[in-house]
Amino acid sequence: MLSERQAKILKVIVSEYIKTNQAVSSKRIQELLNIKVSSATIRNDSATLEEMNFLEKQHTSSGRVPSTKGYRYYVDHLMEFDDYNESLKENLKSILFQRGTKIENVLEQASQIISEMTKMTAIVTKQNLNSELMVKKIDLIPLSETMASVIFILSNGEMQNQLFNLKDISLSDLSISIKIFSDCLVDTPVKEIENNISLIRPNLETTVKNYDLILETFMSNILQTKESKKEIVGMKNMLENPEFNDTDKLRKVINIMENMSPFDWFDVSYSSNQKMIQIRTKIGEEISEDLSDISIVETAIKTEQGSTMLTLVGPKRVDYSQANQLINLIVEIINGDDHKNE
């Protein structure tokens, strides 16, 4: 953990760099800090933060900018949220619900608002359950001493295949797990599987090692049977960021938005603020070594028809506080109105 003064310096640098896209000098840090401290102390603390990989220098004589590690520390420990006044919340509610109360319409409108305010591209991915689809058969096929395949056959004839590394999970444990899955889930509608997992978990826990890994892999595979629809909104807003003047970088970002599933992005270990609605953030190299200047912020919203993922994609130098607050506010509005309609 950082000292209180180091944390304040890091916070100032992150906040100022987000606003200006310019490296932050020691003189500017001193102007912005709300504590009295000498310029020599600021230089020493900044150098220490750089040695700890929280900061980077773009040039030898320049000020400093946040690294991925610095942004991560800021998001997890230093990010603060302004209190949105009630008039803004009411204004957003009136905009969002003027097209009706369907969550699909609300999120479509919300994604446009958030994209305009954050200068990030918004992606709304809807994953609807096929109410008639059922699991018909689950088979285990050993392939070698180190690999095995589990095959899922669905009522529409679709077959899915999942490979397991037997160095992580024994063939015996995998076999027991598949027997439990078959006994409890065959002829079960896909839409009910998530609810039925609570019945399976205690049995797995007492009989199988690494049962969480098996269960997680099974669920991520079987839930891919949902029908997905993705809409990308506000690309022009993201292009206002100077980071995307680089054509090669822009091409990589467009490729990840078009080809990766946000439901995969959401499966990360970082949570930006545990007190808020669950919002996930991935920064720079946490996404990919090739996308070191990119950030992803998102949340999942459950509906009766399935799930909807609201994802924001932008530069690493993004206002994480604003993005988190807007997503949180939108979800609060949606949940609040859902409760009123029940």
UniProtKB/TrEMBL annotation:
Keyword Transcription regulation carried by entry: yes
GO MF term set: DNA binding
Pfam families, alphabetized: HrcA, WHD_HrcA
BP-aspect Gene Ontology terms: negative regulation of DNA-templated transcription
Sorted UniProt keywords: Repressor, Stress response, Transcription, Transcription regulation
Residues in coiled coil: none
Endpoints of the signal sequence: none
Highest taxon in the source lineage: Bacteria
Membership in a protein family: Belongs to the HrcA family.
Function: Negative regulator of class I heat shock genes (grpE-dnaK-dnaJ and groELS operons). Prevents heat-shock induction of these operons.
Protein name, entry field: Heat-inducible transcription repressor HrcA
Species annotation: Mesoplasma florum
